[in-house]
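Journal club prep, notes for RB
We'll compare a predicted complex against what the paper describes. Inputs for the FE2/S2 (inorganic) cluster case:
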Amino acid sequence: MPTLDIDDRSVTVPEGTRLVQAIRGAGIEIGHRCGGKARCTTCRVEVHAGGSAMMTRAEFVKLRGAGLLGEVRLSCQMRVEDDMRLSVLMTKASEGWPDTGPVPADVVEPEAEWLDPDVLARQTPPA
Ligand code: FES
């Protein structure tokens, strides 16, 4: 099972676990203000090592539109496939939210297909 080093915590999760759920499961109050649907970017993480570079179209479009492409990843759009080291960037405490948002589903939404970001850039013209 892959190991996640999340800031000062380390957890082991089954391969294929939705990353935002793995982070929640580690007891970290990460934001997921849109409920894990690639609309808010509050589930953003900085990936230091590991993880696939492949992205869902929803993640690509959202990050590019927010000017965050290449800076952060959306944990609601990633599955844990290997060992990773990452930092959580927006939490209930850091942002002063009353809660973290609607609980995301265990599967990636919207229905996901992971593609090379270069392919997505060619297929998805900027809005
Ligand atoms: S973009 Fe909103 S929870 Fe991931």
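Talking point for the session: Strands lie at 3-6, 9-12, 44-49, 55-56, 73-74, 84-88, 114-115.
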